[in-house]
Amino acid sequence: MPAPHPAARPGIHGRRRALKSLASLALAGGGLRGATTRRAVAREPEAAGHVELQAGDLTAVVGDNSAHDQHRAGYNGLWSLRHAADDRSIFVPSLAGLNLEHVVTGEHLEDARTFFEPRNAPMTLHRLDDAAAELHQPPTPTFHVESWTTFRLVAPHFLDMDFRFRPHRSVFPRGYVSLFWASYMNAPEDKSMYFLGGAEQQAGQWTQLCTQWHNDQSTVRHRDDRLEMTFPEGGRPALFKSVSQLRFDEPLFYGHCDDLVWSVFFDRTDGIRLTHSPSGGGMNPERRTTNPAWDFQFFVREPEVMKEYGFRTRTLLRPRCSRDEILADYSLWNQTRRDS
After folding, report:
1. Mean pLDDT of 59-85
2. How does strand 309-319 pair with strand 58-63?
3. Span 101-116+142-228+236-339: which CATH code?
4. Domain residue spans in the chain?
5. Which pLDDT belongs to residue 46?
6. Region 140-159 average pLDDT
7. Span 58-70, mean pLDDT?
């Protein structure tokens, strides 16, 4: 498994100590000590294929690849995520957020069911408690990847995701495997993702990522990411193939949804890539605009059969706040993990 993200630079995380103290009171008892892993699960799967979770200001629906009402088949993860201050989910109602949808090995994926294999392969859903649920996907038909994803709401406005996967066969001829998550945002006025990074000579500054076209300079790598994914000539275009000249320095991003801010923090830089599409979630006719996709990837070099790999994220959904407040929450989460 890749090593955890090293301690971040004091210049970024020493800000707003008073804010951190207030945030720590709200987060007491809500760190990774409370997380439930797949080994704790010993119950029947949810027959409905989805469950509603609630904690603090957040209500979430976690679901598998099944269809229900307006939700379309083939979209797993967060069917919805809503803050008490808003009356709609931040994700497109028929689609999902934190939706596991690709396994990438560099080979041709012309067939849609293989291209979107995690969206089509069977999953089971287990409720862990009132605030947590787990998705389990047995080894998939083509890539033979088994995975477990735990979602947990933490008061007042956090949602944690713990992802683990295990390759069951060696089907990685180009020496890597990458998994891809999409979050289809529900027609925000600002389609941008914001992160700390920049161009080669612009390290550590707040940078806006808002691509003009789908599959155009879509993916931002970490400053030290040297993996060059290779693909055969003539394959279908894809967001993960199109690489931006921008680089990120800290493993986080945020964006605005109505009067809310949604932030995503990662527990490492190694293997993480950020990806954007201005229209990946289709159109919203009522708002006369596109639904952007705020995506990310996790890759592993030379994966070993039956070895377990994974990472953790913390997402934050709250009324709009300053960037310093976002960094304070990120710093506190890192400190909580180190102390666990």
Report:
1. 97
2. unpaired
3. 2.70.98
4. 101-116+142-228+236-339
5. 87
6. 98
7. 97
